[in-house]
Amino acid sequence: MGASQTRTESKYQDLADRTGFSPEQIKNLHKRFQHLSGNEDTISRANLNSIPALANNPIKKQIIEAFFDKRNQHQDEVGSFGEIGFEQFLMVMSHFRPPTLKTTEEEKEALRKEKLRFLFNMHDTDNDGTITLEEYRKVVEELLSKSGAIGLEAAKAIADAAMLEVASTNVPHMAPDDFYEGITFEHFEQILQGLEMESRMHIRFLDVDTTTMRCGKSTS
Amino acid sequence: MAVQLRLSRRSSGPLLFAFLCVFFFLFVSVSAASRDVDPRNNQTRRNPATEEDSHHQTNSSTHRKVFPVLSFNYEHVRKPFEISLWILLALLMKLGFHIIPRVSGVVPESCLLIFVGLLVGGVIQAIGEEPPILDSKLFFLYLLPPIILDAGYFLPIRAFTENLGTILVFAVVGTLWNAFFMGGMMYAVCQIEGVGLGGVDLLSCLLFGSIISAVDPVAVLAVFEEIHINELLHILVFGESLLNDAVTVVLYHLFEEFSHAGSVTVGDALLGVVCFFVVSLGGILVGAIYGVLGAFTSRFTSHTRVIEPLFVFLYSYMAYLSAEVFHLSGIMSLIACGVMMRPYVEANISHKSYTTIKYFLKMWSSVSETLIFIFLGVSTVAGPHAWNWTFVIVTVILCLVSRVLGVVGLTFIINKFRIVKLTKKDQFIVAYGGLRGAIAFSLGFLLTNSEMKHMFLTAIITVIFFTVFVQGMTIRPLVELLAVKKKKESKGSINEEIHTQFLDHLLTGIEDVCGHYGHHHWKDKLNRFNKAYVKKWLIAGERSTEPQLISFYNKMEMKQAIMLVESGSTAKLPNVVSSVSMQNIQPKEPGRRRAIPSISKNREEEIRKMLRGNLQKTRQRLRSYSRHDLFIDPFEDNVSEVRFRRQRVEMERRMSHYLTVPAKRQETPSVRKVCFEPENQVFTYDDSESPKGPRAQPHQDSPDTVNLLEEAPQRANQSEAPRAAGDDKKRAKVSDEQEEQQKLSRCLSDPGPKQDEEEDGSGRS
């Protein structure tokens, strides 16, 4: 027991260095991971699908896909996993860390790029490096999917207008014959620079034990 | 041309000065000739009145009913006349300041207004009259509510709720700290021998501390409005100034009661704490109730659009007054009412009513603010003063010190809980922006104990002057010096809106995966509750189920459409003109589809005439003003608005398939025009040849729906395509008459690399 504990702790420490969480937070996340996976070593899409609170979320599928996306693992691979282990789970979570008081401007820039990259990967489902009009339309449709039947038309119009905006901001003069293929990562960054992603896209990873709160799964 | 303009500018400056001076003296002489304005002062001058009466009497007795052709009866209209004159003076002063750019760039408007007030007060007093004083009743009941309502109605909710914790800590704990620190230190100073302040006891000091400690929303607004600081700092200081009203009310009443009783027990202190919660939560509750009532009322106003703005104003004012009845915090009630009401009212009311509300609120708050500052100046000259060097100097120093200490100390604690920490620069601005203003003065005025009242008032006025003049004037260069982030110009980007929503859902989802119920989880729950229950009750018709993204998009489109209509045929868009249009984005489809309209030349002529006529009718209709016209204006009808948008979307989609490319391009941007098409269907498609099939048929819709035509920039330049001579003639005629108005161009059926676009003009019958 003692040996395995120190092994776990050193593993936590290693993970902490890699992902930037504190060992406390990693311990809590590990507990959550085990809860979700039913004490297995990996979780599959079905495990995440069965979280009841997620059922009302319009972009549930994209969120779950993001966990299994290899591009979010900082390892230059593409494709998607079938199942992920705790380490991959943590890597995805690390995208949601907030900046601290000590992060410098360059670190903030890097952090923002990383978070924007995460969002970009969520939109760019076919991994061709651009968000095409079809993909963007899909995004808006999903956003509006839970809000009743206002209709695909409105989603299309909004996506079109948004695309037009990106195009006209980034490429102000296009000849009528030119075709704007899709939103590249640079354009994506440009269009969202006003949102200050590094401070908005974060979750408070509390240092308290979260599994004592109601988790929604009826097992153990 | 530029020289001429400059000349006219220079000559208008002295002209305005001359006018203002003349008006100024006229004003002073009238107010001198009149009785005193101050309702508090009971002495009325009877002599001129009796003189007039006797004059009339002598007239009637000697001349026996000579009909007075011209008579002078000023008594009749005295009150409204003087009020109007004061307001007019205030506004002319405001006007004058903005003509002189140099001064208004350096000195904030509030300073200039106080200065003008001093001048007016000085002149009135020099004449020997009694200048009017800023009466507390006038201030609290008439001058303050418009400013607070304006602030509350347009409060940026997202920024406010994100920083609510910080704001509350500053407002409550910060004000308490200020009050007790200042009260305590003043008492300590008063105990020093030889200062002559021995008569001031602890409770009076605490009372004074509680009056002077509150940051004033009017002054903060007046100064911060001009420096355009970033949203976070603005909302911190401003939110604090709004929410500390509850604390101020409780402390003031507490200490005032007990300064009569003479001592405070522990039980009283506990009751004070309870009172604080009652005052603040009660105020918010009252405001929320009135807000919901207002929202509910606005659901039924679709047939009486003209009075919609009045509901908003009256419900809010009633909320304020009702809170004041129970000694609850009126300011918090007003804010709660505005915040509660706004999303639902805006979904229900017409666009014109929205504009009316916005402009009336801005107008009233502007007038109020101006009057407040001028009256402050006048009251300074008028009020009985008891100057005590020690007291005043110590007060000013202590104000600064306690503010800085409070902000620094609290930020240290707050930063442990904040994600976006407050830097030293932020802290400095928050501390420096803690201005005192007219609320402190009016509260001081309400004091009943007269000997210390004068001394307190003098000190309060000095502090106000110091903060407004010194801090107000220097904050702008300091902001520049410290390179504090300014407010970024937000243009309402649909991408940002999409991603804000996306982020909300994403973060909620991640929180659910993590298993803890954080910020986003509860916000999501609230949103869902709102959508499921509240919106159904408070929003009329279809709009109740409209998701936020769609309403944002619609609002933006509406704004653009109205902007284009208002700019008329010159079509100068203020934004950067981009030559990207829909066709650059739509993926190329295999096989371009063309519709082949089968209209004869006569028909085209007819169409053109009709469109021209209708466009003029549109212009007339938009310009006409009558209460009854508003009933039938289709812009106002929400239902047809939605339909109009849907049609436009449909239209755009259809046309985007037809847009083709000529060789040359022009720089004119795409212009969207709105026209009425009440006539019959003017277009028939050759269904068999059009690959779009049934979709190409124009729909049948009710009359009076608005049809939007889109004009691509390429249309003016259509010279090089091969075409029939008749078309050339027609087009030349058309382009002569109306450059960018509706035109119909023929689409050619021959396939070729260069083709023309066509414009759809489906008719509705």
UniProtKB/TrEMBL annotation, chain A:
It comes from Xyrichtys novacula. Residues 1-21 are annotated as: Disordered. Residues 8-17 have a biased composition (Basic and acidic residues). This is Calcineurin B homologous protein 3. It is found in: Cell projection, Lamellipodium; Cell projection, Ruffle membrane; Cytoplasm; Membrane. Transmembrane segments: none annotated. GO terms for molecular function: calcium ion binding; protein kinase inhibitor activity. InterPro entries: CHP3, EF-hand-dom_pair, EF_Hand_1_Ca_BS, EF_hand_dom. Residues 111-146 form the EF-hand domain. The keyword Heme does not apply. Its main location: other. Belongs to the calcineurin regulatory subunit family. CHP subfamily.
From TrEMBL, chain B:
Pfam families: Na_H_Exchanger, NEXCaM_BD. Residues 576-669 form the Sodium/hydrogen exchanger regulatory region domain. Residues 725-743 have a biased composition (Basic and acidic residues). One of its GO terms (molecular function) is sodium:proton antiporter activity. It comes from the Eukaryota. The chain crosses the membrane at residues 83-100, 107-127, 139-155, 167-189, 201-223, 235-255, 270-293, 366-383, 389-415, 427-448, 454-479. Residues 87-480 form the Cation/H+ exchanger transmembrane domain. Residues 37-62, 684-765 are annotated as: Disordered. GO terms for biological process: regulation of intracellular pH; sodium ion import across plasma membrane. Its main location: membrane. It is a multi-pass membrane protein. Residues 1-32 form the signal peptide. It is found in: Basolateral cell membrane. GO terms for cellular component: basolateral plasma membrane. Keywords: Antiport, Cell membrane, Glycoprotein, Ion transport, Membrane, Phosphoprotein, Signal, Sodium, Sodium transport, Transmembrane, Transmembrane helix, Transport. Gene3D superfamilies: 6.10.140.1330, 6.10.250.1040, 6.10.250.2020. InterPro entries: Cation/H_exchanger_CPA1, Cation/H_exchanger_TM, NaH_exchanger, NHE-1-like, NHE_CaM-bd. Residues 756-765 have a biased composition (Acidic residues). PANTHER family: SODIUM/HYDROGEN EXCHANGER, SODIUM_HYDROGEN EXCHANGER. Belongs to the monovalent cation:proton antiporter 1 (CPA1) transporter (TC 2.A.36) family. This is Sodium/hydrogen exchanger. It comes from Xyrichtys novacula (Pearly razorfish).
